[in-house]
Design brief:
three-stranded parallel beta sheet; 4 helices; 7 strands
Length: 137
């Protein structure tokens, strides 16, 4: 049986999309051409809105406790500090916490949530043509 939606890419966006669709009763197939999930990060920050989305997907569980909740980032030019930015300040009182955490860890949590919902990413795999059985409005 063909899924309702084919998600190409098992990074954070593809995994989050697949989780959201499954939560709403839409069948999905997730494919990724990578041999295996990433073990290194391309990003290390989840802003408050990203945390809110993870929370809505029931995928936030445990991540705030694993993250660095507030830190100061200092950018240097040579040995001179040029700019300081405070990130993840709990004093902002956002609905969900901004976090400094590995993208690989966030993706792992999203894969766990996807499995809880009955899905799994297929790796390595690529998207193949699917028949069009309905129109999108």
């Amino acid at each position: 049986m063909e899924p309702d939606v084919l998600v190409a890419g098992a990074g954070p966006v593809g995994l989050a999309l697949a989780c959201a669709l499954l939560q709403h009763g839409v069948s999905v197939r997730v494919v990724d051409r990578a041999q295996a999930p990433a073990t290194t990060s391309r990003a290390n920050f989840v802003h408050a809105r990203g945390s809110e989305v993870l929370d809505r997907l029931d995928a936030l569980s445990g991540l705030p406790e694993e993250s660095v909740r507030a830190m100061t980032i200092t950018n240097y030019a040579g040995d001179r500090p040029m700019m300081r930015v405070r990130f993840g300040d709990p004093g902002l009182h956002t609905a969900a916490p901004p976090m400094v955490i590995s993208q690989a860890r966030v993706e792992a949590r999203l894969r766990d949530r996807l499995a809880e919902l009955g899905g799994r990413p297929e790796t390595p795999a690529s998207a193949s043509p699917m028949s069009r059985s309905a129109s999108v409005s």
